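User: Sequence in, structure out. Go.
Assistant: Echoing your sequence, followed by the structure tokens.
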Amino acid sequence: MCDDVFTLDERIAEVDERIAEVEAMKEFRERMGSGGRFVAVFVDRLGDLYDERRRLEARREQGDGSAG
């Protein structure tokens, strides 16, 4: 099996890690009072990551075990 092929569970776990990282960066910017554009970028990225996670979960529920 090729190392570049992830199972959906592995891919979802990777997305979850990225979500946690972006959440932490967003919270840091909020605490520092950076607000505005900086926080908006993180919110946009979080939306993309949550969408990706939902797509992967839907594929998993349909029985597709690989994330390719």
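User: And one key feature?
Assistant: The chain has a mean pLDDT of 85.
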